[in-house]
Design brief:
Layout (H helix, E strand, L loop, with lengths): L6 H16 L2 H7 L4 H24 L3 H6 L4 H22 L2 H8 L2 H12 L6 H19 L7 H23 L14 H14 L11 H21 L5 H23 L5 H30 L5 H22 L1
Helix pairs in contact: 1-11, 1-12, 3-10, 3-11, 5-9, 5-10, 6-8, 6-9, 7-9, 7-12, 8-12, 8-13, 9-12, 12-13
Length: 324
């Protein structure tokens, strides 16, 4: 069943699963009472350990080779991953949460522009329309919390969508000799290292209070899988579309906070969330209809061709390892 799905649909399903696992993140941040540097230190350390274990289990002694295969992404993606975490925490200290969310919602647009200018990734007209509508819907969700804030907070918040866009776009652009993108999940531990080292230098390497330990443990359970899947989605989709799916985290995170903490969303938030869900559902259904219409007209199944190429490539890699 999975092999019969188009590549784009697989990318959306993988990324959406990652976003579902990422959605408790806002709840965990609200629930902990540690300082930002302490939170970032333990976030980077716990995520880094789990993600490194996953990479070692998958690649073993070939992990250095897998990292080198990422090309420029081995530098840009970890730095962007760490910068987005730092910018998000610092921005929330200097401006309202609504301002930060509005800035974050610009990530799909920024990713689309970066992909177009630097990597010549051309998006379909439908994708640009979906990005515009979803950015508007996500902005409605944050409109009730938008405050004046400070120019410093707004400036730092702008780094959040830029960092997310750089990570997803650079990751999706590393194709190498594969029809599917290069596996950049192997460099996520480097991003965690880039996150925790500055936190340690600023005094974040301290033991958290006992009441925060369970929340940090839950974070170490869900977030590594979330970031692994989201980064994997960039192998199937352009960075702009990965960033677009990430807008669902704003909706799901708000609903979780509503359910657990009791913070009732505003009417605008509910309207904006509905706009996002309906728009993405309509876009997905239109893609499926287009795919079926092409297949009915006798067009070659590109997904099957790509899948066969990947299976042949995987078989070749297995044979090479066996010879060693």
């Amino acid at each position: 069943m999975w092999k019969r799905l188009p590549f784009r649909l697989r990318g959306y399903l993988i990324t959406m699963t990652g976003v579902l696992l990422l959605s408790p993140d806002a709840l965990l941040v609200k629930g902990t009472g540690v300082s930002p540097v302490t939170f970032l230190f333990w976030r980077g350390l716990l995520l880094g350990i789990v993600l490194l274990m996953i990479a070692l289990l998958r690649y073993g002694h070939r992990l250095p080779e897998a990292i080198r295969a990422c090309g420029p992404a081995a530098w840009w993606c970890p730095l962007a991953f760490a910068a987005s975490g730092w910018a998000f925490v610092i921005a929330n200290r200097f401006t309202s949460a609504g301002n930060v969310l509005v800035m974050m919602n610009l990530a799909p647009l920024v990713a689309g522009l970066i992909g177009l200018v630097f990597f010549r990734q051309r998006l379909r007209r439908q994708t640009w329309v979906v990005i515009a509508i979803c950015v508007g819907g996500a902005s409605l969700m944050a409109a009730g919390e938008v405050g004046q804030g400070s120019l410093l907070g707004l400036g730092v918040a702008l780094f959040v969508p830029i960092s997310i866009a750089i990570n997803t776009t650079v990751a999706s652009a590393q194709k190498g000799e594969r029809r599917r993108g290069i596996d950049t999940t192997v460099i996520l531990p480097l991003g965690c290292l880039a996150m925790l080292l500055p936190a340690a230098l600023f005094g974040g390497a301290t033991l958290p209070p006992a009441e925060d330990v369970p929340l940090l443990a839950i974070m170490a359970l869900f977030l590594p899988a979330a970031y692994f899947l989201i980064q994997t989605g960039a192998r199937y989709l352009p960075g702009a579309e990965v960033s677009l799916v990430l807008l669902l985290e704003t909706l799901l995170g708000s609903l979780l906070v509503w359910w657990w903490v009791g913070e009732v969303p505003t009417d605008l938030a509910l309207i904006g969330g509905g706009i996002i869900v309906v728009t993405m559902m309509v876009s997905s259904l239109r893609d499926l209809h287009r795919q079926r219409r092409k297949a009915a007209g006798g067009a070659p199944d590109i997904g099957r061709i790509q899948q066969q190429a990947l299976e042949d490539e995987t078989a070749g890699e297995v044979a090479e390892v066996s010879r060693r």
